[in-house]
Design a protein that fits this description.
globular; 14 strands; 6-stranded antiparallel sheet; alpha/beta; 19% strand; 43% helix; 8-stranded mixed sheet; 458 residues
Length: 458
């Protein structure tokens, strides 16, 4: 059994959905479960509709809903020729849009969007795209079934499951197995929504956008898949962002650890939480290109494969803030624990840490740029001297090869200094597979190009 996930570009329009369907039909594995994201741009339209419903021009949400409905009905007309199937799809789309319109009208009165309400709104994109793909496959004579996974999760939260933790997801995987196995035994291909339900705290807030990768991984774990395939619009995971370095090359194979580091340090191809279900069952994960299905893509395995270079990939994370805390008591017992507890209390996540005898610097992503951060700084200033620096970038090099190569850190810093790029912080991962440096955001492009050229000689 294979778990296949198709992202927004793979579901972008009728032509892309048709290509996706052909990949599913021609796939060599007879038993497969498919997970899909919303059509390109639809999630953003849904978020805009929600914002309209709670702002001054409350009625404008109807324009966004009409655009979403027209987009799906246009695709339906091109993808489904059978009259009965077309009518089924048309009724489904218009009914779902009408239902969301009523929901948004209620929000115009309430005046705010809670995390659970946001989930309710965002989920429609995957519900519509999954239904479209299922109907198209049926129109082509394939046995497929539309599966709305939120119907499982909505029944799970009780006294035993009050938060979306790993224990909950283990239970969810067990329920997925019970739901999907009978369909696979009948050679029916389930087409599942990437959205898997309204969970405490909200799925976008708890798991993040791109959660459909995680859904596909949970399905792979649930059904003991041979492989989890993430189909996207690139040929695999690249040595760096090709928009910065056009010569960036596809990485043949990564270890689970390397892929986790990449996902957490800014690579957008795979969701960070995708890896742990695969690790749990030692399932191969492969990144492939929907528009170039014969390319091998990038394989992610337990051990990975060493390349001939000093490391495998360069990532960057922009909009980074550095918080530096100074105190003459920094090395005293309990001070660091107290400091980190304040970050936890204010729900501000830390990326990198650098320490000295009298100070500690940490980086946070500017998604934390909210009242919590200012409240945290105000609290810290009661005991420490606090300095804040915005507009930074984390540049990281990642690869297990660094464990066997001497002098990689020196060459990395040399590449930056040769181009007069100042390093504000530096950190090496405990597993010795990544080195990160914090630089000014204005130097981001030059830094990536300089490091890529020095190590990959392009």
């Amino acid at each position: 059994m294979f778990s296949l996930k198709f992202g927004g570009t793979s579901m972008g329009n009728s032509e892309a959905i048709s290509q996706t369907a052909q990949i599913i039909i021609s796939h060599p594995e007879p038993n497969k479960v498919v997970t899909v994201s919303a059509m390109s741009g639809v999630t953003n339209l849904l978020i805009s509709a929600a914002n309209c419903a709670t702002e001054t021009n409350k009625i404008c949400y109807k324009n966004y809903l009409q655009e979403i409905q027209d987009k799906h009905l246009t695709a339906l007309k091109k993808l489904v020729n059978n009259t009965d199937l077309y009518r089924t799809g048309e009724e489904f789309i218009t009914k779902k849009i009408s239902g969301l319109s009523g929901f948004l009208h209620a929000l115009t009165i309430i005046g705010e969007v809670s995390p659970r309400s946001n989930d309710e709104i965002v989920s429609l994109g995957e519900i519509l795209s999954a239904k479209l793909l299922s109907l198209h496959l049926q129109d082509l004579g394939e046995k497929s079934d539309f599966i709305n996974l939120e119907n499982i999760v909505s029944k799970m939260f009780d006294k035993d499951h009050t938060e979306a933790n790993k224990e909950f997801f283990e239970c969810f995987a067990h329920k997925l197995e019970k739901l999907l196995t009978p369909l696979l035994e009948k050679n029916i291909t389930p087409i599942c929504t990437g959205f898997f339900g309204k969970i405490p705290g909200g799925i976008v807030a708890t798991v993040g956008r791109g959660y459909s990768d995680f859904t596909a991984a949970l399905i792979g774990k649930a059904c003991n898949a041979k492989e989890i395939q993430i189909w996207t619009d690139v040929n695999g995971i690249l040595s760096t962002d090709p928009r910065i370095v056009p010569e960036a090359h596809v990485i043949e194979e990564l270890s689970f650890d390397e892929a986790t580091e990449l996902a957490n340090l800014g690579a957008k191809v795979i969701h960070p939480q995708t890896i742990w279900p695969a690790v749990k069952n030692n399932i191969l994960v492969r990144i492939k290109n929907t528009m170039s299905p014969l390319d091998a893509g990038t394989a992610i395995t337990k051990e990975g494969k060493l390349s001939t270079h000093s490391f495998k990939s360069i990532t960057i994370q922009k909009d980074i803030t550095i918080i530096t805390v100074r105190s003459t008591t920094m090395t005293e017992s309990g001070v660091l624990g107290e400091l980190f507890q304040e970050f936890a209390n204010h729900k501000v996540s830390i990326d990198l840490v650098s320490t000295s005898e009298s100070s500690i610097s940490v980086t946070i992503q500017n998604e934390n740029e909210n009242k919590n951060l200012q409240q945290l700084i105000t609290q810290l200033e009661k005991k420490f001297i606090v300095n804040r620096e915005n507009n930074n970038t984390i540049i990281a090099i990642i690869g297990n090869e660094m464990r066997e190569n001497i002098g990689v850190a020196g060459r990395f810093l040399s590449a930056l200094s040769d181009h007069k790029i100042n390093v504000r912080m530096i950190s090496q991962g405990a597993n010795q597979s990544n080195i990160s440096a914090v630089i000014s955001q204005k130097d981001s492009k030059n830094a990536v190009q300089a490091v890529h050229k020095k190590f990959f000689r392009i």
